[in-house]
Design a protein that fits this description.
The chain has 912 residues and is an alpha+beta fold. Helix content is 46%, strand content 19%. 48% of the residues are buried. The N terminus and C terminus are likely disordered.
């Protein structure tokens, strides 16, 4: 056999092959009928080169695709495509060779890779590519009941792959579900484009009739063909033809139906196809769904929703996208697959669409809908400013000065909040909640120096709004300034001063600094008790938040005492079902869960949930939080069916109240994934984890990790967003180098910002960047807990363990040392006296044994422990020993995962 080992793509050769006019496909040697090739074609069990044929996967006009097994130098299953016997005309050979060259030219994670190529002993061309063992994208989505968000996320990856092909000068021309298979890799659904059999080069004009064979049959799939593909004539096919096909695919993913009747297209012949595609307009997706009648219920169920909800979502914006992609006039379509993908992500992120009407009112409506919190906050700020003006007038300000301040208020609103809401007045860039808040903050500086109470009111409200957007550090700065002003001009015992005191302490708790929040919350409770009384709602609520802060500090006994005091005080005052008492009961339950007393945890949380539903109503946000917590307690007890019922209810409720992509909703989804992994139900776990991945990809820009090195201070700011599913799957941003042999890494963790209390940053050594790799890591949380995480065996034979010590105060140092297969984790307050962090395995008393290669990855890692939030860690004093490359500061960094493969061995450790 002649082996063509130089099967890599050669663009010049590809252009020559396309120049042969292979799309004309002069099939002068007609293809044998299906099944007639058997006498002369290779049979399953025979060999082609180093590959043993197992079975036939499929058959096309010019080739047969086999499932084959490669035995040397590695063992794996592959897909082998070979020209059919007798299909040896120049054009057929050129067309087959062009497909082989096209696939080799493309290098994208969502396109099947070519592995090898050659000719058989009979002289027929073949090529080998990765075996994609998946379902067509539409079947996968329907089988797994993938939500609209999940479908759009998968579709966006397909667009990215087609954009890559276009940038390499290749048009696919036959995009359809059967050419886009979805496989599950590491628990995540990944689409793969597998067939470029009728692709053509962008540089090759399409001659008249080029899409027709001698028998006047269209080359391609009529249901997915663009109007210009069937029109013929001198019109050249460009990338917008593929955009049209993508639009049809999106239409099907959304509605479960094709835009035009497939029977009409299949049975009517080329003339009918031309008439339909050139003259008839498709129904809008919402109308198409309505026309399906009773079938619509099943279609909605396959999208994990109800038909009424699906119809509402399809109306207007979501149907603008496929209709723009499928415009008859290609000048009205998206200019590229990248532009189509961008609009998909804009929809998922709530941003204005290219497909939407470009009116000023539409874009303002979009901003208001996407940022209700900010618009409401802007209104509140305006009212607060007006109220502040009245207070100032009645207290001590003359009318002329007051008029000037009212003008200052008007200027502040007009030049910041209102300007940001009006896209015609912005200087480019996307409008976001934080960008508007930043504009108000900048404009506030120095504007109200003669009205400090007005500035304090604005600062307080700005701080609260920043806090609710997750920007805890900025919120804390505004609240600190408001507190300082109120203390100076109103005094320590003014209720407004105490409000700022309490909120600042609460923000410190939420930003992962409970040590800073504790004295503020203690003072707020004491002052509210003295001024308002111990039974006042504000006093009880402050005491409950103080108890929550004690939980973050690990003071469980103190938290229980405070919550019991809240309940007793409320009981004496005849208000056992006041909101603070309900929250205190819930907190008692979570503390019992942390202590492993699950029956008591269940009793308290269930009682709080019943009270919340009865007193606060079914739609109150606490219902979802408490339901999630109760489901989590059932999970810890192994009561999986009951846990599933509650967790799915929590996700449904939070999706309705907060939105499907809200961090609260996604945290419940994380718990649900943990349930299915512990329950050994990997398909359900994969489905829900795909939803988390879709939420992250929809906001990929703002949630992407990054690394910044300050050369003068020799310090790093490393940012990362990561989902955390117990010991099942963690995500990190990892700055890394290569270490050969023995060595160590030491780092001082100075600060962790914008996090929840279980965020982690520290040092890591891992064999590879694969999620299932062996690894060892020493982390610190914002609350000062030092943890030693490690995984000893990859892929299914073990799970990530961890041991913990602390709390310690930041800044604090961590060190990880490798000596052969032994890994030692240590921590130190001063860098002189080091203490070992023991493993979490009761059978392992000393350092951990982990077999790794000589060359490993070593570096800094951070995770937010929260799918919707980015943590930023400040790290200094980084020192490495051993043979490390490259020299100098860290420059390579990327988002990575740590995945546990053995579901039954996962152990939940987090409380909601």
């Amino acid at each position: 056999m002649k082996e063509d080992t130089s099967f890599g793509a050669r663009p010049e050769r590809l252009r020559r092959l396309f120049a042969l006019g292979i799309e004309d496909a002069d099939e002068s040697a007609p293809a044998p009928a299906v099944g007639s090739w058997g006498l002369s074609a290779e049979q399953p069990g025979s060999r082609i080169g180093r590959y043993r044929l197992l079975r036939v996967l499929g058959e096309g006009g010019m080739g047969i695709v086999y499932l084959a097994e490669q035995e040397h130098p590695i063992q794996r299953q592959v897909a082998l495509k070979v020209i059919k016997p007798g299909m040896d005309s120049q054009r057929i050979v050129a067309r087959f060779e062009a497909e082989r060259q096209t696939l080799a030219l493309l290098d994208h994670p969502n396109i099947a890779h070519v592995l090898d190529a050659g000719t058989t002993e009979a002289g027929r061309l073949y090529f080998v590519m990765e075996y994609v063992q998946g379902l067509p994208i539409t079947e996968h989505c329907d089988r797994d009941r993938v939500s609209i968000e999940g479908r759009l996320a998968l579709f966006g990856q397909v667009c990215d792959a087609i954009q890559h092909a276009h940038e390499k000068g290749v048009i696919h021309r036959d995009l359809k579900p059967s050419n886009i298979l979805v496989v599950v890799q590491g628990g995540t659904a990944v689409p793969k484009i597998i067939d470029f059999g009728v692709a053509r080069a962008l540089s090759r004009p399409l001659a008249e009739g080029a899409l027709m064979t001698e028998e006047n049959q269209l080359v391609g799939t009529p249901e997915y063909m663009s109007p210009e593909q069937v029109r013929g004539g001198s019109e050249a096919i460009d990338v917008r033809s593929d955009v049209y096909s993508l639009g049809v695919l999106l239409y099907v993913l959304l509605t479960g139906a094709l835009p035009f009747d497939p029977e009409t297209l299949r049975q009517g012949g080329p003339d009918t196809v031309r008439r339909v595609l050139l003259e008839e307009d498709p129904k809008t997706p919402s109308r198409r769904l309505a026309a399906l009648g009773a079938q619509g219920e099943s279609i909605a169920g396959q999208r994990d929703t109800e038909v009424r909800t699906l119809a509402k979502r399809l109306h207007r914006e979501l149907e603008w996208i496929p209709l723009k992609a499928m415009a008859k006039d290609r000048e009205r379509r998206y200019r590229s697959a990248a532009a189509l993908a961008s609009d998909i992500r804009s929809y998922l992120n709530g941003a204005p669409l290219l497909a939407g009407p470009p009116s000023r009112s539409y874009r303002i409506r979009k901003f208001v809908r996407r940022n209700r919190t900010l618009v409401a906050a802007a209104t509140v700020v305006a009212l607060a400013l007006a109220a502040g003006a009245v207070v100032s007038l009645t207290m001590y300000v003359r009318a002329q000065v007051q008029a000037q301040r009212q003008q200052a208020v008007s200027d502040l609103l007009n030049n910041t909040v209102l300007a940001a809401l009006d896209p015609t007045r912005r200087q480019g860039g996307e409008i976001t909640v934080l960008s508007v808040l930043d504009g108000v903050s900048d404009a506030l500086e120095g504007r109200f120096t003669d009205a400090p109470l007005m500035e304090a009111e604005i600062r307080h409200r700005l701080g609260m709004t920043y806090y609710r957007q997750g920007a805890h550090d900025v919120g804390a700065r505004h609240l600190q300034r408001a507190l300082d002003l109120r203390r100076q001009y109103l005094g320590e015992d003014d209720l407004a001063t105490i409000d700022s005191l309490f909120e600042l302490g609460n923000v410190h708790r939420r930003r992962g600094h409970p040590h800073e929040g504790q004295p503020l919350l203690l003072e707020a409770v004491a002052r509210r008790t003295r001024l308002l009384g111990e039974a006042h709602d504000k006093t009880l609520y402050a005491k409950t938040i103080l108890a929550t802060n004690c939980v973050a500090l690990g003071r469980h006994g103190e938290a229980l005492r405070l919550c019991q005091e809240v309940l007793e005080t409320a009981r004496r005052a005849g208000g056992e079902e006041r909101s603070a008492a309900i929250l205190a009961a819930y907190r008692i339950g979570t503390v019992h869960a942390l202590r492993g007393n699950y029956p008591e945890a269940e009793r308290w949380i269930d009682g709080a949930l019943r009270s919340a539903r009865r007193v606060l109503g079914e739609d109150h946000s606490w219902r979802g939080t408490f339901t999630d917590a109760l489901g989590w307690v059932y999970l810890l007890q192994g009561r999986f069916a009951q846990s599933e019922q509650l967790l799915t209810e929590a996700v449904s409720h939070e999706s309705r109240v907060f939105g499907a992509a809200h961090p609260y909703t996604l945290l419940s989804v994380e718990t649900l994934v943990g349930l299915y992994v512990a329950w050994d139900r990997p398909e359900e776990a994969s489905k829900w984890r795909a939803r988390l991945a879709a939420a992250k990809s929809a906001d990929a820009g703002s949630l992407a990790g990054s690394l910044h090195h300050d050369a003068q201070k020799n310090a790093y700011a490393i940012r990362g967003c990561g989902m955390d599913i117990y010991d099942v799957f963690d995500e990190f941003h990892f700055a890394h180098k290569t270490l050969r042999g023995d060595g160590s890494i030491t780092a001082r963790v100075d600060q962790i910002q914008n996090t929840d209390s279980w965020a982690k940053t520290g040092v890591m050594i891992r064999r590879t960047l694969d999620p299932t790799s062996e690894h060892a890591s020493v982390f610190i949380t914002p609350t000062g807990v030092v943890t030693f995480h490690y995984r000893q065996v990859p892929r299914g034979a073990g799970f990530s363990r961890h041991g913990a010590v602390g709390p310690v105060a930041l800044p604090h140092r961590v060190r990880l040392t490798r000596r052969g297969a032994t890994f030692t984790a240590e921590h130190s307050a001063d860098g002189v006296a080091w203490q070992e962090v023991r493993s979490g395995d009761p059978n392992q008393s000393g350092p951990v044994e982990i077999a790794m290669d000589e060359a490993v990855r070593v570096g800094l890692a951070v995770t937010s422990h929260h799918v919707g939030r980015v943590a930023e860690a400040h790290v200094s004093g980084v020192a490495l020993t051993g043979v490390v490359a490259p020299e100098g500061p860290f420059t390579l960094s990327e988002d990575i995962g740590l995945q546990t493969i053995t579901p039954s061995q996962s152990r939940p450790v987090r409380v909601p």
